[in-house]
Design goal:
alpha+beta, 176 residues, two-stranded antiparallel ribbon
């Protein structure tokens, strides 16, 4: 899965991915239909998902300048608005995966995760926050059903263990 395919899939699920989202290191800024903002980032040894309240999300219309270097200013409609957070903004919910504690990451392994490795971690953290999303058919879903995770009474409540490549340890081949 590449970054464009992932952002399209997130859009189908009801998330509006906005700049400055990028693929390396993986960082997603996504607006929820209710107006809240999700910030997902893979940095250092931590993968983190934060949710900000709608009141902390602002759109600024920057003054545009011509790219040719002549100094001419562009009209506001030609310059896309950009997303900014209030300086006093604090996340209302946070879910994180501590790779150093759980998987023994030592430096910058989270920053090296590919989009294909980060996407399931996003879904796991999204389920931890309880943020609803839509299925591909447009029907609302939330929690473990939305992410494909389900817990039986016999499963522990421990965090999943990920290898340095970001793949859940339960899906890796066991050695004998």
């Amino acid at each position: 899965m590449d970054f464009a395919a992932w952002t399209r899939a997130l859009h189908v699920r009801g998330f509006r991915v906005v700049p400055p989202s990028h693929a390396a290191p993986v960082r997603i800024w996504a607006l929820l239909p209710a107006g809240d903002l999700l910030h997902f980032r893979c940095q250092g040894t931590t993968v983190r998902l934060e949710r900000y309240a709608e009141d902390d999300v602002l759109f600024a219309n920057p003054v545009g300048h011509c790219d040719c270097g002549c100094g001419r200013r562009l009209a506001a409609p030609q310059t896309p608005p950009r997303l900014v957070l209030r300086t006093s903004a604090r996340p209302v919910d946070v879910a994180s995966f501590d790779g150093a504690r759980v998987s023994g990451w030592r430096g910058h392994e989270a920053g090296l995760l590919s989009v294909a490795e980060a996407a399931p971690m996003f879904d796991d953290l999204l389920a931890d926050l309880g943020v609803p999303s839509r299925s591909a058919s447009g029907h609302p879903r939330s929690g473990p059903v939305a992410t494909g995770r389900s817990r039986s009474d016999t499963q522990s409540d421990q965090e999943p263990t990920y290898s340095a490549a970001g793949i859940p340890a339960s899906s890796s081949a066991s050695t004998s």
